[in-house]
Amino acid sequence: MIVIFGINLKYLLIFKVTNYYNHHSVVNSGMIWLLFAFLTALFESLKDVASKRGLQRFDEYVIAASLILFQLPFLVPLLFFIEIPDIGENFWSALVAGTGLNLIAITFYIKAIKVSDLSITVPIVNLTPLFLLVTSPVILGEYPSPLGYPGILLIVVGAYVLNIKSTDRGYLGPIRSLFSQRGPRYMAVTAFFWSISANVDKVGVLNSSPVFWAISIVMSLGVGMGIIMVVQSRKHIQEIPQNLRILFPIGFFGAVTLLAQMTAISLTLVAYVISVKRLSTALSVIWGHVLFKEVNIKERLAGVFIMIAGVILITLA
User: Fold this and answer.
1) Hey, is 89 helix, strand or coil?
2) Distance in angstroms (rounded) separating the CA atoms of residues 101 and 203
3) DSSP annotation of 171
4) Mind listing the pLDDT tens digit for each residue in 78-108?
5) Complete DSSP assignment for 118-129
6) Amino acid 317: pLDDT
7) 3-state SS of 259-311?
8) Chain-centre distance for alpha carbon 17
9) Sequence-distant (≥ 6) Cβ neighbours of residue 33 within 8 angstroms
10) If 0-12 CB within 10 Å is exposed, 13-18 middle and 19+ buried, where does residue 224 land?
């Protein structure tokens, strides 16, 4: 499993394919894996902060393109250090499908961060494993164990607690109020598309290799997002060279997130890494309060930790 963009469970499926074959031979690496897993969560949250700051100067298309294009200098050189795999017959169809799905998901992800607080939008990405319980059986015929169903309940309860101050609008007020905001709605769209692309990623990995697929999808997304930026943000393109200090960190944090997670997963089991990585949503809530003066921090932190517990149960399932 690999998480390319930081948000979500989708690329973790990639490394799960690898771990399926070698999980019995995982080396006991002490607590080093925990350090890299926490760094994954930290840089994932910093990527959200950098994106939020960038949106104060540029539109969502420039920020989305920066997230992808500024990862390439760190990832493309890896092609010289890995074995190029045999390409299966379904690789190219998976690449096309994965690129299209992720272009939509990333655009909505950045839109969500733009229009609403980090502390209310980023936790909604935890809906991805919930959607996976539906999309994986349909696309891949994979079904979770019963452990996944309490996880669903916890994610729903966590979403309720995120906006619990809206109970004055009735028992369902927090849920209605939460998704009446554009940010959480956009992030729910992102989570849904990532739940589909996660299954496409697995097809891509089975027809290549985990690292080669990860680099391929980022390169393909770079082309697609670059074209979208040129079409949608012509007025901003000339300003990009003068604002690299704002845009470069977005891709840098995305690349470091990927590399830290790859390292952590090589040292322990995937389920352990994803459990720690989901702390990124809690860190984003904290950054939202500290850096952007967002309110209702206690309720939102409580909600996100409940959602993380649900994610862990579904991951283990």
Assistant:
1) coil
2) 14
3) T
4) 888 888 999 999 999 999 999 999 999 999 9
5) HHHHGGGGGGHH
6) 67
7) HHHHHHHHHCCHHHHHHHHCHHHHHHHHHHHHHHCCCCHHHHHHHHHHHHHHH
8) 18
9) 264, 267, 268, 272, 273
10) middle
| Residue 156: CB atoms within 10 Å | 16
SS3 category, 170: coil
Q: Which two tokens stand for residue 103?
A: 């272009």
- The residue type of 231 is V
One DSSP character per residue, 199-267 reads: HHHHHHHHTS-HHHHHHHHHHHHHHHHHHHHHHH-HHHHTTTGGGHHHHHHHHHHHHHHHHHHHHHHHH
Q: Distance between CA 193 and CA 21 in Å, rounded?
A: 28
Residue 254 amino acid letter: G
Q: How far apart are CA 159 and CA 157, in angstroms?
A: 5
| pLDDT (tens digit per residue) in 251-289 | 999 989 888 877 787 677 766 777 788 889 899 999 999
Radius of gyration of the CA atoms of the chain, in A: 19
Q: What pTM did the predictor assign?
A: 0.82
